Queue: 3 jobs
Job 1
Amino acid sequence: MRAVGLLSLTAIAINGMIGSRIFVLPATVAKLLGPLSPLAYLISGVAIVLIVLCFAEVGSRFERAGGPYLYAREAFGSLFRARGLAGARSVAQGAVVKTRVSM
């Protein structure tokens, strides 16, 4: 007898939620941007490729696993160790705010 376990049932539910959103998002973008929506998707795709290339470059500089956590810990040093991920995030947000104000 085959049965669907708790893990499989949870995965099916998550897949349904994420999968249904894929069909709603293009309609929402088309409603907001009209004929420029394909251009928005193209620009978004280019931005994602640039972000992926940045992660690949940074990832090639470390021999250990850890992803963004490791990168932030190495970039912020003792500040990151003392305040954790929330501390690094607040420092990064402060830098963005200062940059926008100074422009």
Job 2
Amino acid sequence: MPYIDRDTAIKKAIVACIKVVGHGITHIDALKVAECLGEIPVADIAEVRHGHWRQNMYCKRIFYCSVCGRHIEDATQNPKEFFPYCHCGAKMDG
């Protein structure tokens, strides 16, 4: 689901309403639209960081995160299968 910036939506709604004031929309209507948008709860989201597991050049079972450098040991040679995310929160899809 896409997210929008509520403050930006309120500003754009007010500007759009003010442009049509006198054509069936009043200043009170514009304020009501802004009030309704202001009542929508804000989602607690964070930007997804993307990274990948880099293989250690000296030991083929050791991989490290391209974002934070955390090391893991994985004998399967496919760390994304068992470690799709690093502890730093990076999604290992790169």
Job 3
Amino acid sequence: MTSPDPVPAPARSAPDHFRVALPAPLDVPASLAFLGKWGDDLLDRWDGTHLVRTVNSGGRAIPFVGVSAGTVAEPALDVTTEHAADPPAGVRRAAGA
């Protein structure tokens, strides 16, 4: 008896990276510190450097990782998300753009 071919995994696209400039002055780690204060709530994760969360875009949950970048005088968040020709507006809003 032969088993059927396994269902192929969905194609994954390359991640998309972009930088979101934030209004100055802003201490990004201090501003997000409250997210890590009580531990991981499985919604917003902040370890002092990386913000991990999802946003809703067109009824689809889009995961992203934001890494604090820049300085207080020129703050930014480096964002990685699934590849998209135009990163979802929800990701940019959640990242502060």
